[in-house]
Write a structure and sequence with these properties.
This protein is mostly helical and about 325 residues long. Helix content is about 80%, strand content about 0%.
């Protein structure tokens, strides 16, 4: 089945279908993670991000359901964050080496990379990982059971408003995060912008049949922004480790080059991310989603007579 809301079908059924599919995929990745944690945990977290983005999209349709289930998957994601972050930091070292080949050609990042690999292996081989995975599986199974209790408005006007409200809230969140990131430049502000961009990307996929403007180019631009902001987030995490008092990345002589490259990378990623985000989220969220609400209402209304005719038959 497709990861896209079909306007020809009742909204409640479509959301239940997509939630069940994504949670089911997350569960399959968690099962595999016992033996292959690196890729499986990354894939699982992507599915959980899809689930939470979908919950944000339909939030105004059932606030109670949203609050409980969003909290559930936030906690699951937090359980899995450490092992995934350990892998992402190794990828960051490799990316820095590729971005600055002339400065890292003498192996100045090798000692740090070795420590990060050892750190990753300790996380993946420890008994705690198995316990963490089982806790995540249990929570996702409980969440799967709760899906059946979801009830959303299925009448065209109300259903369209629910979707427009969810899309608008994320665009507002992105615009506010963009303003803060441009003014303050703090890691938390860019992280909020990244989360909003990722959520908006999922919304574009879900609303592919309802979004009123050309969607392919926008989706590509949003995904590219998300990638750059993800790289920036990893840089912030690495710098925090670099500054930690217990020196987890090694002595100063091993990390001096890394510190310089992180500063260069942070400056570049901030600049290009702010420019791209301004292009994507500079418009009024209300104006952007007014057309969405109108198109969704028309499409859902057009599908309603077909549904009634099928039911009568």
């Amino acid at each position: 089945m497709t990861f896209r809301i079909d306007p020809r079908l009742p909204l409640t059924g479509e959301i239940k279908r997509i939630l069940a599919e994504e949670i089911g995929k997350a569960l399959r990745h968690l099962t595999i993670a016992h033996d292959r944690p690196e890729r499986a945990l990354h894939k699982c977290r992507k599915r959980l991000k899809n689930v939470r983005a979908l919950l944000r999209l339909i939030r105004s349709g059932d606030e109670t359901f949203y609050t409980a289930e969003n909290q559930r998957y936030r906690e699951v994601a937090a359980l899995l964050a450490g092992p995934r972050e350990a892998t992402a930091l190794i990828e960051t070292i490799d990316r820095l080496a590729a971005d600055f080949p002339e400065r890292s050609a003498d192996g100045g990042l090798s000692a740090v990379r070795i420590r990060l690999v050892e750190r990753q292996q300790a996380m993946h081989e420890g008994e705690d990982l198995g316990t963490t995975i089982e806790a995540a599986i249990k929570a996702c199974r409980q969440g799967m059971e709760k899906v059946e209790g979801l009830i959303l408005p299925d009448q065209p006007e109300q259903a369209a408003d629910v979707l427009a409200d969810g899309a608008r809230a994320t665009l507002r969140r992105a615009r506010k995060a963009l303003e803060r990131a441009g003014t303050n430049g703090e890691a938390e502000d860019f992280h909020d912008l990244r989360k909003a961009a990722k959520t908006h990307s999922v919304h574009l996929s879900l609303l592919g049949r309802l979004w009123p403007t050309p969607i392919k180019a926008r989706r590509k631009a949003v995904d590219e922004l998300g990638e750059r902001l993800g790289e920036l987030h990893d840089v912030f995490v690495m710098r925090a480790l670099l500054d930690a008092e217990d020196g987890p990345l090694g002595p100063a002589e091993d990390t001096r080059l890394l510190g310089k490259l992180l500063k260069h990378s942070e400056k570049h990623l901030k600049k290009i991310s702010l420019a791209a985000a301004a292009e994507l989220f500079g418009d009024s969220p209300k104006r952007s989603t007014r057309k969405l609400a109108r198109k969704a209402r028309d499409d859902l209304a057009a599908a309603l007579p077909q549904e009634e005719a099928t039911t009568a038959t």
